[in-house]
Amino acid sequence: MKSGFRSAASFTLLACGLAILASCHSSATPPASATPAPTKKWEFSTGALRPLPRGDFFDDQSPAIGSDGTLYVPGNSGLYAVRPDGIQKWFYHAPYQSPAFPMRFVLIDDNGNIWCDETAEVGRVVGGAIELNPDGTEKPFAISRERVSQLSEAYDGTVYVAMGGAAVPVHIDEKGAEPSTSVGGYFFSFAQDGTTYSVLSHQLVAYGHDHNTKWTQAGDAGGEPVLGSDGTIYVGGNGVFTAVNPDGTGKWSFSLQGHMIASPAIATDGTVYFGSEDSNLYALDSNGRVKWKFATAGPIKSTPALAKNGTVYLGGADHNLYAIGSDGKLKWKFATGGQVFSPAIGDDGTIYFQNGEGKLFAIQDAENNGGLDGQWPKRGAGSRNTARGVR
Asked: Given the DSSP bridges, would you call strands 27-29 and 330-335 parallel, antiparallel or unpaired?
């Protein structure tokens, strides 16, 4: 479907100046006998966010990273392309973006094109997705219906735009984008065998490559389902974190005191890391046994990012980015002026994250962290935010 709220006229690509701001309140605080504090390389303004309550799946902002290191960053009124040194390459202004609903999602597809969400208020809140060329110019295909809950891409190159409880699969070819029959769900992940896993109405659903339902697992499921290398599907919800076998049978479940809003991350050794509204980061082994938990000063509403040296980087609602060792001990924390969203890690080990101030930060750990690593190492799985599981 073509966009129902976009004009037929092409939109002008807006050039925006460099916005690297010095922060007067950002600092790294290492505990006694901890590893050295990190270095802030730079920060970049993506536009102030309205001071609304934040915490559901629409609120997180996390960049995608291209093969050349370019960061594609959702802002308050459009999408920024930022070089690894913090210099802006281009800015795409989403002309109908509502000031109450900043852009949240960005995906880099297999063709190198960039997808982002747009939310408008035209009597009611509507939403959709826009496809951009690598230079930031808009492609002529847009999908609109409801507010977007995820952008992702299956192994066959189909881009899924999830909105309003259904995902429109958009097959990409040399002619552009062509929508096909939608499948139910708010959040999706993809296996190499063509299976699509979806969270819909508090259930985990597995669809075959023909989009027919293979099985349904009842339970309190919410957030992006995450895939382990053995095919296990992990999903959190209200008061429970669940592991499900690839055939749909339950593997184990873990009770929580709070709601798990964001998706987990899975390390190379199978350790599963996730946060909860009870303010704890949990580390479970692949059998659901607690290895350790780490207490923060506020609810956790983001997905950790995992580095090759075992460091877990976690954004907190208490305005801190935490660096936690694989042993559960704090290495350092970096204070900002707003809630920290799900981080990403560049190939050179730079930690990138956005926060509730409307800023993008680039942080260099004093240790060589080796870059992003794991079975499902961050929100959206890899650097391009495709939500693909690797087996």
From this structure: antiparallel
Cβ neighbours around 312 below 10 Å, total = 24
Q: What are the tens digits of pLDDT across the range 41-66? A: 999 999 988 765 444 444 789 999 99
Distance CA 81, CA 142 (A): 20
- The Cα 112–Cα 334 span in angstroms is 33
| Whole-number Å distance between alpha carbons of 145 and 224 | 20
Q: Are 58 and 52 in contact (CB under 8 A)?
A: no
Task: Write the single-letter amino acid at 41.
Answer: K
> DSSP for 168-196?
EEEEEETTEEEE---EE-SEEEE-TTS-E
Per CATH, is 39-364 categorized as 2.130.10.10? yes
Of 90, 104, 95, 76, the C-alpha closest to 18 is 90
What is this structure's pTM?
A: 0.89
Dist. CA 268–CA 271, nearest whole Å: 7
Tell me the chain's radius of gyration from C-alpha atoms: 19
d(CA 354, CA 90): 18
Q: What is the mean pLDDT of the chain?
A: 86
Compute the CA torsion angle 120, 108, 335, 35 (nearest 10 deg).
170
Eight-class DSSP state of 25: S
| Residues 271 and 283 sit within 8 Å (Cβ to Cβ) | yes
Amino acid at residue number 167: A
Task: Say which residue the tokens 């991350």 belong to.
Answer: 265
Of 56, 166, 157, 59, the C-alpha closest to 115 is 157
Structure-token pair, residue 238: 């209200």
Measured in degrees and rounded to the nearest 5, phi and psi for residue 43 equal: -135, 155
- Give CA separation, 12 vs 78, 105, 255, in Å: 12, 21, 50
Give the tokens for residue 327.
């042993």
The overall longest dimension of the chain from CA atoms, in Å, is 61
Handedness of CA 325, 301, 189, 2 (dihedral sign): negative
Q: Which tens digit of pLDDT belongs to each residue from 307-361? A: 999 999 999 999 999 999 999 999 999 999 999 999 999 999 999 999 999 999 9
Q: Where are the domains of the chain?
A: 39-364
Q: Which amino acid is at 154?
A: A
Partnered with residue 347 across adjacent β-strands are none
Segment 102-129 mean pLDDT: 92
